[in-house]
Amino acid sequence: MTDPATDPPEIEELERTAAWRLRLVDANPGDRCSQQAADLLQRLADDLRRPDLAPLWTELRSVCNWLGESDAISDYAEFAAEYRARIGVADHPQDGAAYLRGLIGIAQSLI
After folding, report:
1. Domain membership flag for residue 97
2. Dihedral sign (CA 37, 39, 42, 48)
3. Number of folded domains in the chain?
4. Alpha-carbon distance 49 to 52, whole Å?
């Protein structure tokens, strides 16, 4: 496992979204959907720390660098946040690789 202090921001964003889902569960203990979403989000965050995902990380960084140069990175950030909010409800990435492919797809759609 990597040092959490050096984790990519995408991991922190997944963990923040999981925490938001858990706050929804605290407000409504019967909210099984948010509980399941929080569990999935945390599993994805943990899975993203696998070293074998380096090629996908490199691809995501490359596309995001291009978006940064074309001023489309803020659109990407907005769409990526919407994607994370849907995870566990409408979207169910199987693992960290599927999540990264989802982010890459979002980024590529803005090119």
Report:
1. yes
2. negative
3. 1
4. 9
d(CA 74, CA 109): 13
Tokens representing residue 94 in the block = 């199987």
Query: What's the pTM value of the predicted model, to 2 decimals?
Result: 0.91
pLDDT in tens, 22-67: 999 999 999 999 999 999 999 999 999 999 999 999 999 999 999 9
The 3-state secondary structure of the chain, one letter per residue: CCCHHHCCHHHHHHHHHHHHHHHHHHHCCCCHHHHHHHHHHHHHHHHCCCHHHHHHHHHHHHHHHHHHHCCCHHHHHHHHHHHHHHECCCECCCCHHHHHHHHHHHHHHCC
Determine, yes or no, domain membership for 2: no
Beta bridge partners of 87: 91
Asked whether residue 1 is domain-assigned, the answer is no
Tell me the residue range of the domain where 50 lies: 9-109
Residue 28 lies in a domain: yes
pLDDT of amino acid 4: 55
pLDDT for res 1? 44
